[in-house]
Amino acid sequence: MDIAARHEFRVLASAHPKLPVLLTAGRLARRLRKVPRIGWVTSDPLTARRILNDPEHFTLLGEGGVGHLWAQVLGDWVYEIFDGPGHHQLRSRTRDLFTDENARHLTDRVIGPRLERAGAELRAGATVDVADLARVLVGRIVADLLQIPIGVDDDEPYREIFATGEELASLALGTTASTHLQPETVARAKVIVARLTANIAGTWRTARPETVLGRCRELGLEQRQAEGLATLLMVAGTETAASAMARTVALLHDTGTQHRLFREPDLLPDAVREGLRVTTPAPLIGRAVAADVTVDGRLLRAGERVLMLTWTANNAAGGFDLDRGYLPDQRQLWFGAGRHLCLGAPVARAEISGLLRMLLDSGRPWRITDRRYRRNVLIPSYASLPVSIAA
Ligand code: HEM
């Protein structure tokens, strides 16, 4: 195993000691295999996409799906917007919510100044903890999304927002075996959601059109739909994005490919795509079987569960490589596929690009001076990744 793969392995193992075992042994499942206590498992990109594109037979609302999980916390209306006609209507209305262009505007406006400050610190010889910076940047996006007023230009409130989002997501920890939550977990989660969304009702009518809430209003969403969507955006887009940002910085360093990127900055989109592929921050996707169906010659029965090991499927192609290009089998499986394909994909790409551009603009290759991995988290990630630019 090379250095980059070794660090990635540790990132996964620290999140959950069994995760690397599941993801590497998952290769054996290839197309579809039934595993005791987990259900059906696949690590084949085509089989995973076939399942994700078949809403008639697979749902995320049943036991084993993320919709089932969030409905217990957010209320039954989640069933309406997570799947079926309500979901279709919401997705059609929000099709233009995040184009590449307005995701770039969003990140330039909300995190651009903080990135500039980090670049100046690096150039002045300071060490910048990229993992912490990523959490602060994502916290800033969430504050903007949920219209949480922050009076001071200080990182601490944004770290707290990130931690709150993370706490909410962590309630889903341990749901690989079951998505039924304990009543006290549901109660805790409801308190967090109420706290995070407290300002939306007050700002809904006045939010400026360039904010996500303002855009939602202009796209014709109702306030309750926007509140639900904002919560989902936060839960789905907090740890995932911060994880990809720091891990991509580490991969470019550990593989030595940052030097090529300095020489050929036009490869930035390739670095972002490869970072997303190799890290696959949401390493597995679950679905419940809604109706009996045969996939790859195996009969899957209603009520059973399927776990798609997307990390395994994406990494089967090999390690981080700026020359890898677009992979037609994997496509962008790190963002899922089908009707639930990540709504925030352009935002995630803009966030990672923004961070990498800041590092490239600082003019000299970065060194990682130390690193720590986060323990017992849902989304594998670095706890700290201090970098400085070599003299
Ligand atoms: C690197 C960062 C990210 C990764 C790897 C990622 C990955 C994913 C994946 C795999 C899904 C599909 C889940 C499923 O089918 O069960 C998804 C859905 C979703 N993501 Fe992301 N995501 C990222 C960032 C974001 C960001 C920044 C946002 C919001 C600004 C976001 C918002 C959403 C939403 C709302 C959904 C649900 C879409 C639906 O059900 O129609 N994600 N994401």
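^ protoporphyrin IX containing FE complex. Residues 3-389 form a domain with the Cytochrome p450 fold (CATH 1.10.630.10). Residues 31 and 44 are 5 Å apart (CA to CA).
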